[in-house]
Amino acid sequence: MLKINNLTVKVLDKYILKNFNLEINEGEIHVLMGQNGAGKSTISKVIMRDDTYEVISGSIKYNDENLIDMSTTDIARKGIFLITQNPPEISGVTNAEMLRTSLTDMGKNDMNILEFNRKMTKICDKLNISNSFIHRDINYNMSGGEKKKNELLHMWMLEPKCIILDEIDSGLDVDSLKLVANSILDYYQEFKPSILIITHQKSLVDILKPNYVHILADKKIVKTGDYNLALSIFENGFRSSIMSESEANE
Ligand SMILES: Nc1ncnc2c1ncn2[C@@H]1O[C@H](COP(=O)(O)OP(=O)(O)O)[C@@H](O)[C@H]1O
Ligand SMILES: [Mg+2]
Known about the structure:
The chain is of the alpha/beta class. It has helices at residues 40-47, 72-77, 95-105, 113-126, 144-158, 174-191, 202-208, 227-242, 245-249; strands spanning 2-11, 14-24, 29-33, 54-62, 65-66, 80-83, 90-94, 137-138, 162-166, 194-198, 212-217, 220-225.
């Protein structure tokens, strides 16, 4: 479904990714881990075609269409959805305005205003945020954790098929982290999207039970495993987790 092939990316004069490969099929959950500055957020933004990042070579295909030739708007229309590490504040545009406009644009707005508000209210209740969020400006004057929940409100309303979550756990208190993880799990069980999660949080990995865990280092994915690889990283750190078992035994 999402297939990244030999992707090489530069920002300013620095190579951030070199020959990066990743394939995510429908309904799979992948976790991407790596040290600070490894390029995790970069890959999430390159997928959405943030033009700060220069694609030197390679391809990013979604259902066989090359995203590199598309605008961010068109990529979003395909049902690809990113929650960035630091969601931007957009004053002057409310959640409801943006969501109704987006749903209409995607041909998915089959709700009248009452049904729309009822659906928003239900999601706000589940996310334990005030119903006043419906008419608040996007992420504006929200705390770090509230921004993450507000972005999840967008996800539940837009019903994307491919979701990228960049450190959704940052800024969340312990209770909120559990609530957010379970909300993502509920969404996964209902819609079976493809999910790429960038995280260092064990509790999130425990709840979401990924199919694959990848380590990003040296500008590409250097190791792929299952849940046990994440456990090894939590226990032993990245360096010893990257080494093969034979090397580790030397
Ligand atoms: N817009 C940018 N301008 C300059 N350097 C950037 C930019 N975005 C990312 N970088 C650099 O690219 C590297 C990878 O960043 P990032 O993808 O944010 O890492 P991670 O999310 O893995 O911590 C870092 O060295 C960072 O400083
Ligand atoms: Mg990052």
